[in-house]
UniProtKB/TrEMBL annotation, chain A:
Name the UniProt record assigns to this protein: LAMI_0E01332g1_1
GO biological process, one term: intracellular protein transport
Alphabetized UniProt keyword annotations: Cytoplasmic vesicle, Membrane, Protein transport, Transport
Species for this entry: Lachancea mirantina
SUPFAM superfamilies xrefs: Second domain of Mu2 adaptin subunit (ap50) of ap2 adaptor, SNARE-like
From TrEMBL, chain B:
Region feature (Disordered): 610-662
Composition bias, Polar residues: 629-646
Protein family (similarity comment): Belongs to the adaptor complexes large subunit family.
Keywords attached to this entry: Membrane, Protein transport, Transport
InterPro entries: AP_beta (IPR026739), AP_complex_bsu_1_2_4 (IPR016342), ARM-like (IPR011989), ARM-type_fold (IPR016024), Clathrin/coatomer_adapt-like_N (IPR002553)
Domain of life: Eukaryota
Pfam families associated with the record: Adaptin_N (PF01602)
Function noted in UniProt: Adaptins are components of the adaptor complexes which link clathrin to receptors in coated vesicles. Clathrin-associated protein complexes are believed to interact with the cytoplasmic tails of membrane proteins, leading to their selection and concentration.
Gene3D superfamilies for this protein: Leucine-rich Repeat Variant
GO BP: intracellular protein transport; vesicle-mediated transport
GO cellular component: endomembrane system; membrane coat
Identification of the protein by name: AP complex subunit beta
Length: 442, 697
C-alpha cells in the first residue's frame, strides 16, 4: 500500500507525482536524489529500498527514469508496491510506446488519469490495459447534466465489478483465432573448464487471443502431472509413466485468468483469456541439459605484446534443425589494437566500446562445428595495478520450431457457450538463449 | 498550449485576470481557456507555490458551483485538497458544494467528493463525511467502487484523528461476513480492518472465525489479483486455527496460489502458509518442496523483486536450525549481469547455506568472486570465506587453503582483506602451522589499511614464538608510531607491552618504553594516552614495589591472557524472527528489522495463542513422501513429488561432441505466425492454411 507514486529522472528529480495518502510530506521526494547519491558513495550498493526520516522509498529503474513509491509503514507489502510499479510500466508502454523521461512529460495528463484508475488509496485496482482502455482515452470526459437521465453517465464498465475483471463483454472478431507461442529461454553457466555449473530452462506460453464473446479455453500440454495424474490417483499404486513424450514442468506460474483451484485438483488448465496479447503461464525446468551451442574459448595472453584467442563453437542440436542469429561475445582487455581475424563462417568484429569481439553466425546447422581465431596487439606499457577482468563469454542464439524441454501443446479447446463459433488455434515453438548463457573465462 | 507552458510560475492576479477574461466572453472557446487557467493553478500548486494560489479560493468556488464539466470538478477538488493545510475560511462554503457533488448521480464525482470530505481535517467535514459513509455502506444499491472509496475514507479520517474510525470497527467485521456484499468490498474491508488494528494497540485483536476465513478464501476466484494479496495478507495472524486439521486444510487451500504469476500474490501465499505451519504438528515433505520451488521461481523476476525475494530467503534460512527451504546453492551463484545489491545478498545467502557437503562448491564460487573486477564484491567474498572458516570447524583447512591461494594472486586489496580476515580465523584456530604464518607475514610491508595493519600486528604478536624475527617485523609498525591511525596505534601499544611481559630482554624493554613514552607524551587522543598510562602503572607496580601483591604472572595474565573463543552469531532473536516471518514481503523483511523498533506505537505482530500452536519451531515433524498419508490426493501430485536428487545441475560434461538428446525436435506442421518473436514467417499463406485448418482434437 503505497502512499504516493513518483516519476523521477535519472538524477532523482521529480517529474510527475500522484499522492494517494496524505501521510508523507511533499518535500520527502526532494531528499531522494541526495539519498541516491549518498547510498552510491557509501558502498556502491544501491538497494531498491532506501529509508530516510521514517519514509521508505522503494523504487525501480526503467530506461532513464526512476519510479518511486513511498510509504511510512514498515509493515506494508513492498512486494505489492514493486509489482505494481512494474505493472505500471507495462501499462504505460501500451499507452505511450516507450516509457522514458520525455514521453512522461509529454503525456502527463493521461498518466495522471491512469494513476488515478490503477491505484486507489494506495491499493492497486485495475491494471489490465484492455480494461483501462475502455474508459481512459486521450479525451477528457464531459459531465452530463444531472437533470438528464443518469443512464448515459460515464462510469466504469460494469465488468470491473464482475468476476471476469480482465475481459470486457461484447468482443467480436470476424475470424476467431488464438495464437500460442511457446518460448523457452536457456540459462546456462559454464565454468572455464567446460563444466556446466547451472542450467535451467525458462519457458513461457504467450497467447494472443482474437476470440469473440466470453470464450472458455482449455489447454492440454504433454506435462506428466497434467496427463497422468488422473490414472495415478485412481488406483493409488502410481505406475511409472511409460509415455516418453510426457515431461515434468516445475514451478508453473499462471496468469490471473487461470483457475488455480481447478488446476490444483484436476490438473486442467482452463481460463477465460483477456483480449489480445498476454502471458498465460511460465515454467521452469532444471533438468541438466547439454549446452545447445557449445563453445570452447582459449585466450592466450602474451603479456605486453599480443593476445591470441581461439574459439570453437558447435551446435549440439539435431542435424535437421538450425540455430539462427548465433552471437558469441568474447571479452578482450581494454586498449587492444590492430585486430586480425581468421574464420570461414559468419563475421567477426571488434567492438572497442564494449571491449569485446563479436562473432556472428546467421545460420548454424545442427551437428556442425566452426572455429575462429583472433590475434590482437597489446600496449607495451600497462598500468600494473589494474586487476584482470573476469568478464564471461556470452552466447546468444535462437532455434525455431524447437523446445528443449519437449513440451508440446496437445490441444486448445475453445468453447463459447453462446456463440458456438469455430476457432483456429495456432502454435509456434522457439528456443532461445536466456539472459545468462555465459561461459566463464580464466 | 503545450504542457510545458502550463508548468511555469504565475502570479495569482495573472490567472485571475485570465479566468475573468474567459468569463466575459460568452462563447465556446472560453471554456477551453478557463480549463487552461485551472490547469495553471494546479501546476503551480504542484510546483509548491501554495501561498500564491491560496488567494484564488473565491474564484475556484465560483467555478465549482456553475460548471458541470468533469475536468473542472477534478481541478476544484484537487485545489481543495491542496489547500487543506491553509485552514482557509472558505472551506465552509466549499463544504456545501462538495456535499452537492456527493448528491449527484455521477459516480466518479461522488467518489471524489467522498475522498475530499475525508481528507480535509475539519470537524464539520468529518461529521458530513460520517453521514455519507453510513449511507453508502449500508445501502446495497451503491456500486462497489463507491463502497471501496468509503472504506478508504475511514482510513483517511483515522489518519488525522485517531478516534474517528473507532465506531466503524464492528461495522467493518459485519461487512466482511456479509454474503451479499461485493467480493472486492469484503476484501477491502478486511484490509482496512487489518490496518486499523495495526495502528490502534488498544483494539482487541481481530480474530476471524473459521467460517469467515473459508468464506473469504472462496471469494478469491472472483477477485482481481491485487485483492488476492489483500485477503491473503489479511488472514495472516488474524485467523487463528484451533485444531491441526483446520490448519492443514487451510494450507491445502492456499497452496495453489503460490503459482500465481504476480509476485505479491505468491509471496502473500507463502507468508500465510508459513504462518499456518506454526499450527500444525507435522508437515508433508512435498509441501516444503513446493514452497522451495516457488521461491526459486520467484528468482526469475526483475531485479528489484528478486532482491526482495532474496532478502526473504535470508529470513527463512535464519528461521530454523534446519532450514525450511530446500534450495540448491547453485541458484544463488552470482551472475555477471546481476546488479550489485543482488550480488551482495546472494553472497550472504551462500554463506548461510554453506554446509560441509556443499562447501567445496561454494568455496570454488567464492574464490571466483574474490578475483572479480569489482573491488567491493571481491572483498566481501574474501570476508565470506573467512567467516565460513570460523563457522564450519571441520572444513577450516579447505577455507584456509583457498585464502592462501588467493594471496598468490598478488593484488593489493585482496591481500589487505585476507590479512584482516585471517585474524579471526587464527583466533578461532590458534594451532596453525608456522608455514601459514610465515606466508602471511611475508606481506608485512604491503598492508596499508588500518584494519589489515592492526590485524597483521595481532598475528605477529600472537605467533611470535614461531617467528624468530618478530621484532624486526614489528618495527615496521612501531617505528612510525606517531603517524599511524588510532586503531593501529592501539594495536602497537598493546603488542609492545605483550612482547615485554613475555620475553624480558633489553630489546623488548627498550621498545616498550619507547612506545609508552611516545604515547603518554605526544599522543593527542586521550584514550590512547590513558591506556598507555594504565600499562605504565601496571608494569611499574611489579618493578618498584617488592611488597606489592601483584606478581609478574598476574600481569602476564592481564595483558596476555587467554582469549575468549569467538563464534559467529547469525541467529536472530526468536521474538524478532517470529514477527519478521509474519511480515514476509514487507519493508521490514528487507531490513530484517522488527517494526516495533521503528514505530513504537504500532502493534507488533506475534503468533496468536491457540491450543495447537507449536512452541518449539524445530520440533515440527517432517513426513517423508509416501502415498499412505492422509489427504494424499492433493499432496502427492506428481509435480511436487519429483525427485530433485537426480536433477542436480552440476554435472560434468564429457560428451560435448554428441548432439544433445534431451532436445526434442518438433514437427514443422503446427508452426504458425505471430508477430512478436523473430521466427521467420512462412512465405505461403496457402500452405499454412493447409497445414493448420484442422483444429486440434
Amino acid at each position: 500500500m503505497a502512499s504516493c507514486v513518483y516519476f523521477c529522472d535519472l538524477r532523482g528529480k521529480c517529474i510527475l507525482s500522484r499522492r494517494y495518502r496524505d501521510d508523507i510530506p511533499s518535500s520527502a521526494i526532494e531528499k531522494f536524489p541526495t539519498l541516491l547519491v549518498d547510498a552510491e558513495q557509501e558502498s556502491a550498493v544501491v538497494p531498491p529500498c532506501l529509508s530516510h526520516n521514517g519514509v521508505y522509498y522503494s523504487f525501480i529503474q526503467h530506461n532513464d527514469i526512476y519510479l518511486v513509491s513511498m510509504t511510512r509503514s514498515m509493515s506494508i507489502n513492498v512486494a505489492q508496491s514493486l509489482a505494481f510499479l512494474y505493472r505500471l510500466v507495462e501499462v504505460l508502454t501500451e499507452y505511450v510506446k516507450t516509457v522514458e523521461e520525455e514521453s512522461i512529460r509529454d503525456n502527463f495528463v493521461i498518466i495522471y488519469e491512469l494513476l488515478d484508475e490503477m491505484m486507489d488509496y494506495g491499493i492497486p485496482q485495475i491494471t489490465e490495459t484492455k480494461m483501462l482502455k475502455q474508459y481512459i482515452t486521450q479525451k477528457s470526459f464531459k459531465l452530463i447534466k444531472s437533470a438528464k437521465k443518469s443512464k448515459n453517465v460515464v462510469r466504469p464498465p460494469s465488468q470491473l465489478t464482475q468476476s471476469v475483471s480482465w475481459r470486457p463483454e461484447g468482443i467480436v472478431y470476424k475470424r476467431n483465432e488464438a495464437f500460442l507461442d511457446v518460448v523457452e529461454s536457456i540459462n546456462m553457466l559454464i565454468s572455464a573448464q567446460g563444466q556446466v555449473l547451472r542450467s535451467e530452462i525458462l519457458g513461457k506460453v504467450k497467447v494472443k487471443s482474437r476470440l469473440s464473446g466470453m470464450p472458455d479455453l482449455k489447454l492440454g500440454l504433454n506435462d506428466k502431472g497434467i496427463f497422468t495424474s488422473g490414472t495415478d490417483l485412481a488406483d493409488g499404486t502410481a505406475p511409472p509413466t511409460t509415455k516418453k513424450s510426457n515431461i515434468e514442468l516445475e514451478d508453473l506460474k499462471f496468469h490471473q485468468c487461470v483457475r488455480l483451484s481447478k488446476f490444483e485438483n484436476e490438473k486442467i488448465i482452463t481460463f477465460i483469456p483477456p483480449d489480445g496479447d498476454f502471458e498465460l503461464m511460465n515454467y521452469r525446468l532444471t533438468t541438466p541439459i547439454k549446452p545447445l551451442i557449445w563453445c570452447d574459448v582459449k585466450i592466450q595472453v602474451h603479456s605486453r605484446s599480443r593476445i591470441e584467442i581461439h574459439c570453437r563453437a558447435a551446435a549440439q542440436i539435431k542435424k535437421k534443425s538450425t540455430a539462427n542469429n548465433v552471437e558469441i561475445t568474447i571479452p578482450v582487455p581494454e586498449d587492444v589494437d590492430s585486430p586480425k581475424f581468421r574464420y570461414f563462417h559468419g563475421s567477426v568484429k571488434y567492438l572497442p566500446e564494449k571491449n569485446a569481439i563479436v562473432w556472428k553466425i546467421k545460420t548454424f546447422p545442427g551437428g556442425k562445428e566452426y572455429s575462429m581465431a583472433a590475434q590482437m596487439g597489446l600496449p607495451s606499457v600497462t598500468d600494473v595495478d589494474t586487476p584482470k577482468s573476469k568478464r564471461p563469454v556470452q552466447v546468444k542464439f535462437q532455434i525455431p520450431y524447437f523446445t528443449t524441454s519437449g513440451i508440446q501443446v496437445r490441444y486448445l479447446k475453445v468453447n463459447e457457450p453462446k456463440l458456438q463459433y469455430q476457432s483456429y488455434p495456432w502454435v509456434r515453438y522457439i528456443t532461445q538463449s536466456g539472459d545468462d548463457y555465459t561461459i566463464r573465462t580464466t | 498550449m503545450s504542457d510545458q507552458r502550463v508548468f511555469t510560475r504565475h502570479k495569482a492576479y495573472e490567472i485571475r485576470a485570465e479566468l475573468q477574461q474567459a468569463d466575459n466572453k460568452r462563447f465556446k472557446a472560453s471554456a477551453a481557456r478557463q480549463k487552461n487557467a485551472l490547469k495553471k493553478i494546479i501546476a503551480n500548486i504542484t510546483m509548491g507555490y501554495l501561498n500564491e494560489m491560496a488567494s484564488l479560493f473565491p474564484e475556484i468556488l465560483k467555478f465549482w458551483s456553475i460548471d458541470d464539466d468533469m475536468e473542472v470538478k477534478m481541478a476544484c477538488h484537487q485545489y481543495a485538497l491542496a489547500m487543506a493545510p491553509t485552514k482557509s475560511s472558505h472551506f465552509e462554503e466549499a463544504l456545501k458544494l462538495i456535499q452537492d457533488d456527493f448528491a449527484s448521480s455521477n459516480e466518479r464525482l461522488r467518489i471524489m467528493a467522498l475522498n475530499t470530505l475525508s481528507s480535509i481535517p475539519r470537524p464539520s467535514y468529518y461529521s458530513a463525511c460520517q453521514k455519507c459513509l453510513e449511507s453508502v455502506l449500508t445501502r446495497s444499491s451503491e456500486s462497489a467502487d463507491l463502497k471501496r472509496a468509503a472504506l478508504h475514507a475511514i482510513l483517511n479520517m483515522d489518519q488525522a484523528d485517531k478516534n474517528s474510525a473507532r465506531p466503524y470497527v464492528s461495522f467493518l467485521s459485519q461487512i466482511i461476513n456479509e454474503q451479499r456484499q461485493f467480493p472486492s468490498v469484503r476484501a477491502h474491508a478486511l484490509s482496512v480492518l487489518d490496518a486499523l488494528n495495526e495502528s490502534h494497540k488498544d483494539l482487541p485483536p481481530m480474530s476471524l472465525s473459521h467460517d469467515t476465513c473459508f468464506n473469504l478464501l472462496e471469494l478469491l476466484p472472483e477477485l482481481n489479483e491485487w485483492d488476492h494479496t489483500l485477503i491473503l495478507n489479511g488472514l495472516t495472524a488474524n485467523y487463528v486455527p484451533q485444531t491441526h486439521s483446520e490448519s492443514h486444510h487451510l494450507i491445502e487451500v492456499v497452496l495453489p496460489h503460490l503459482q500465481h504469476v504476480n509476485t505479491s500474490v505468491s509471496l502473500a501465499a507463502l507468508k500465510l502458509i508459513l504462518y499456518l505451519i506454526n499450527y500444525v504438528d507435522s508437515i508433508h515433505e512435498s509441501i516444503v518442496k513446493r514452497l522451495s520451488s516457488s521461491v526459486v521461481a520467484l528468482l526469475n523476476k526483475p531485479s528489484e523483486l528478486q532482491f526482495l525475494v532474496l532478502r526473504n530467503v535470508i529470513l527463512l534460512l535464519l528461521g530454523r536450525d534446519k532450514p525450511f527451504l530446500q534450495i540448491d546453492v547453485s541458484y544463488f551463484f552470482v551472475e555477471f549481469n546481476d546488479p550489485i545489491y543482488i550480488k551482495d545478498t546472494k553472497l550472504e545467502i551462500l554463506y548461510l547455506l554453506a554446509k560441509e557437503d556443499n562447501l567445496r562448491q561454494i568455496l570454488q564460487e567464492l574464490k571466483d568472486y574474490a578475483t572479480d573486477i569489482d573491488i567491493q564484491m571481491s572483498r566481501k567474498a574474501i570476508r565470506a570465506i573467512g567467516n565460513l572458516a570460523v563457522k564450519l570447524e571441520n572444513s577450516v583447512d579447505d577455507c584456509i587453503n583457498v585464502l592462501l591461494d588467493l594471496l598468490d594472486f598478488g593484488v593489493e586489496y585482496i591481500i589487505q582483506e585476507i590479512i584482516s580476515v585471517f585474524r579471526n580465523v587464527m583466533r578461532k584456530y590458534p594451532e596453525q602451522d608456522s608455514e601459514t604464518i610465515k606466508r602471511l607475514v611475508a606481506f608485512n610491508d604491503s598492508v596499508q589499511e588500518p584494519e589489515s595493519r592492526s590485524a597483521m600486528i595481532w598475528i605477529i604478536t600472537q605467533f611470535s614464538r614461531s617467528l624468530p624475527n618478530f621484532l624486526t617485523l614489528f618495527r615496521v609498525f612501531s617505528d612510525n608510531f606517531g603517524e599511524e591511525s588510532l586503531e593501529v596505534q592501539f594495536s602497537v601499544l598493546n603488542s609492545s607491552v605483550k612482547f615485554f611481559v613475555r620475553t624480558r630482554s633489553s630489546e623488548t624493554e627498550e621498545l616498550c618504553l619507547k612506545i609508552l613514552k611516545t604515547a603518554v607524551d605526544n599522543a593527542d587522543n586521550p584514550d590512547l594516552r590513558e591506556r598507555a598510562l594504565m600499562y605504565w602503572r601496571l608494569l611499574s607496580l611489579v618493578q618498584q614495589r617488592a611488597d606489592s601483591n601483584i606478581s609478574l604472572d598476574d600481569i602476564v595474565e592481564i595483558v596476555d591472557g587467554e582469549l575468549p573463543l569467538i563464534t559467529l552469531n547469525t541467529r536472530l532473536d526468536p521474538a524478532v524472527l517470529e514477527e519478521l516471518e509474519l511480515n514476509i514481503g514487507s519493508i521490514a523483511s528487507i531490513y530484517l528489522k522488527p517494526i516495533g523498533q521503528v514505530f513504537r506505537l504500532n502493534r507488533t505482530m506475534t503468533l496468536p495463542q491457540s491450543p495447537v500452536l507449536n512452541r518449539n519451531r524445530d520440533s515440527l515433524e517432517m513426513i517423508p513422501d509416501t502415498r499412505s498419508s492422509k489427504s494424499s490426493a492433493s499432496y502427492s501430485d506428481p509435480i511436487s513429488t519429483r525427485s530433485r536428487a537426480g536433477s542436480s545441475p552440476v554435472k560434468k560434461m564429457n560428451d560435448h561432441d554428441k548432439p544433445a538428446e534431451t532436445v526434442n525436435h518438433l514437427k514443422m506442421k503446427r508452426r504458425t505466425t505471430i508477430g512478436s518473436s523473430k521466427v521467420t514467417r512462412k512465405p505461403s499463406i496457402l500452405s499454412r492454411r493447409i497445414s493448420i485448418k484442422r483444429p486440434f482434437t
